[in-house]
Amino acid sequence: MLFYLYKDVCYLYTFKYKQMKKLACFSVLVLLLFVVSCQSDKKSDSYYDQMNKKATAEELLQRINLPIDKVAKKEKKKNLIEQDDDLLVYKYELSELDFYELTYVFDELGCFEVGLDFQVNNKEQLGILKEAYTKQFNESKDFRLENDINGLARWLKNDESITVELDYALQEDGILALTIFANE
User: Which class for 120: exposed (0-12), middle (13-18), buried (19 or more C-beta within 10 A)?
Assistant: First the structure.
């Protein structure tokens, strides 16, 4: 009889140990899931980094003179908000309140204008965007600064085939526009 009692006590002890082990593993798993889910790539990246994940300025420059069908393949169809025979407009969110529109204008030769219009309430992020694009084109070997007056910086490609404008005149209002033009 004592043997059966000992066996029952051992069984209960083992059963409780297994239950505690499962509970501890479950708790660690829940904690790990919570930590991972609280991290967000979108919020930790600057708006400039988010934009570059979709298309860098260099990639946008390469879309000049492409036909409308090839440009459309490079963008996400779900973000298309306006389409015409000579126009494509896409809207991308940067945060809950901030976004940019990417506009392509076409003629018989292909895309002759690419516009990035930012609507950003976060002044720090808007400043990062302005400084990053300014630095990128100022340091480019392919472009030279033509002028930077009254909130409009203009760069000309060395072969004079493309002009890039950064309009920051309304930066205090949360508006920034980068436009790439094919020169005739």
Answer: buried
Q: Name the domain count of the chain.
A: 2
Q: Which domain holds residue 11?
A: 1-39
Residue 69 and residue 93 share a domain: yes
Is 30 in the same domain as 84?
Answer: no
Based on the fold, state whether residues 91 and 166 are members of the same structural domain. Answer: yes
Helix, strand, coil abundance in the chain, percent, nearest 5:
45, 30, 25
Condensed to tens digits (0 to 9), the pLDDT of residues 40-95 reads 444 568 999 999 999 999 999 999 999 999 999 999 999 999 999 999 999 999 99
* Same domain assignment for residues 13 and 50: no
Q: What is the pLDDT of residue 5?
A: 52
Question: Which residue(s) pair with 102 in the sheet?
Answer: 90, 116
What pLDDT score does 57 carry?
93
Give the length of the chain: 184
Q: Across residues 114-143, what is the average pLDDT? A: 96
Mean pLDDT of 155-183: 97
Calpha distance 168→50 (Å, rounded): 20
Residue 80 shares a structural domain with residue 171: yes
pLDDT value of position 178? 98
- Provide the residue type at 161 as one letter: S
Check if the beta carbon of residue 182 is closer than 8 Å to that of residue 65: yes
Cα–Cα distance, 170 to 176 (Å, whole number): 7
